[in-house]
Each structure stands twice: as C-alpha cells, then as structure tokens.
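Sanity check

After download, print the first record. It should look like this:
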Amino acid sequence: MTTMTTGTRVVAVCAADKAVVLLYGRGVYAGDFPRPGSGNWSVEDRALAEATIRESDAAGRTLEATREINAQLVARGESTQADADARIANAEVHFAKSIAERAEDLLRGMDLNPRIDLDAGGSVWGCECWWMPEEEFEAFVQGRTIEPVPFPRRAGE
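Expected structure tokens:
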C-alpha cells in the first residue's frame, strides 16, 4: 500500500533504458484495490499466513503491546489520544478474530495494489509499471525519447 493521496496526478511507465522511456500514460492514482485474480489463495498460502500470525503473537505483538506503544506515543507527543484510541479500538477488533480470520485479513491486504486510471482510458496496476507523481517525471526522463505503448491487456478484458 502506498501513502500517496488518491487523485494525485501520476505517470505510468512500462519500461525504460538509457535511450527510451516506454510510457503507458498519465493519469491519477485511484487508490489501492485488489488486483485482478486476487482472493484465490491456496491452502499453502492460508497456512503460511496463519503461521505468520501465530509467530507474530508469540513475538509479543499483542493487544497489550499495542496499548503500551500507543501510551508511549501519546506521552512523547507523537500522537493524539484520539488517534491512539482509534488504533487501540482497531487492534481490539483485530485480536478478537480467530487466527483464520486474521490470516484472511492479512492475505486480503497483501492483494491490494495501486491502480492508475489513465487519462486515455483503461487502468494499469502498480505491479505492472513504474509510476510516480507527474512532477517527478521530467527528472526521470533525463532527455530520453518517450514512446507511448498500450496499457496491458488482461484475460477477461
């Protein structure tokens, strides 16, 4: 997941070498969404996610640890009490779930990917390109030739 603001103007690049930048186009960062084909996790994926949750719990990443960390953030002035309370409330919901539910949440979060909606139509996913805010593009190009290319076609489109 990205920290970029939804609606930010961006440029999506297919590939680049020393001479040429292959450009999908300009558009907007639409947010983080499940990639096409997401959610079809294997038994092994689920087992690995559940093992990761168990290991995290055993390492002390617990609700009590969340409360302690947030109290420290507030005491140091690095967080408001309201923000800390919201994080603790989210953690209470998280830790009340079963291991299987928490593993599914983890997998669902891993499926999220930045979607770039192109001005010319269509979308390209963050995992399919290099993308950056428009204002960084000229520095990236550095005098190379820009060649437009069609955005990727996916099965079912």
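If your output differs, re-run the checksum step. Summary of this record's structure: Helices lie at 43-58, 63-75, 81-96, 99-111, 134-141.
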